[in-house]
Amino acid sequence: MKTKQLLLGCALAAVLTTPAFAKDLSFLLTNQSSAGVVGFYVSNTGSSEWEENLLEGGILAPGYEIDVVIADGLATCQYDIRTEFEGGDSFEDYDLDLCEMGGYAFE
Prior knowledge:
Strand content: 35-45%
Radius of gyration: 20 Å
Mean pLDDT: 81
Shape: globular
Distance between the termini: 65 Å
Helix content: 10-25%
CATH topology: Immunoglobulin-like
Number of domains: 1
Structural class: alpha+beta
């Protein structure tokens, strides 16, 4: 009986000490504004720099939406967003829980 308890204890310890792997974060990005989006940058909250442009040189035209995947390997939902529009305007939004929100829209 003690051998079974010891094996069960070892198996439980192995599961509890195995690192958790972060899942990719996916959400719907919608452009409800009157200008095209030419830059969309997302960085985890607390970072001092913006990550690369997730639109990769593309444009999200007014009235369109796309699925965005953040595959940064982090186990967080808190992100900051920077958006650049055609014409040079930009907008920043901070400390967003993208897991809870499930989507982000420009208006």
